[in-house]
Amino acid sequence: RRLYFDTHALVCLLEENGFTTQQSEVIVSALVKIMNTNLDMIYKDMVTKVQQEIALQQVMSHIAGVKKDMIILEKSEFSALRSENEKIKLELQQMKKQVMDEITKVHADNKLNLNLEKSRVKELHAQQDRALTQTDRKIDTEVADLKTMLESHKLDNIKYLAGSVFTCLTVALGFYRLWI
């Protein structure tokens, strides 16, 4: 392992500051052991460049597999959605045709019913007109009969009146003759 500081320079520095050579070497040796232990702990948690590249390749192949699966799933979902959409379009067209047929049927039924009602109303009006005409004829006949009866009664009354007047005149002439 490389050490990123000069151990001999540290020993010399310690000797300059009052440590003996043996003490300085022991301190530097302890520092090297501590650093190596720390580096071992750090290296345990770290990966090497090769391990990192292998992990990256594994991740990339996994991503590519997921991408393929997604594309296949998307295509199958898309085709399933497309076929479902076509089914719904066909059902919608059938329903539209059925609705249009029903509308046409209802329209024809309504037109037929309307024409039947018109003919019934016309027949009813014709019957009413005939009844009214018959009633008018009956009234006219009755009025004519009443006029005829009135005229005959008038004539009878005139006859009776004339007869009464002549009778009174005859009686008056008879009395007049008798008195004269």
Give an overview in words.
By secondary structure, this protein is mostly helical. The protein has two domains: 46 residues; 132 residues. It is built from three helices and no strands. It is rod-shaped, with a radius of gyration of 69 Å. The model has no long low-confidence stretch (mean pLDDT 89).
SSE succession: HHH
Structural class: mainly alpha
> What is the radius of gyration computed over CA atoms, rounded to a whole number of angstroms?
69 Å
Estimate percent helicity: over 70%
Give the domain tally: 2
Please tally the helical runs, counting DSSP H or I stretches of 4 or more residues: 3
Global mean pLDDT:
89
Coiled coil: 78-105
Organism: Phainopepla nitens
Family: Belongs to the CCDC90 family.
Keywords: Coiled coil, Membrane, Mitochondrion, Transmembrane, Transmembrane helix
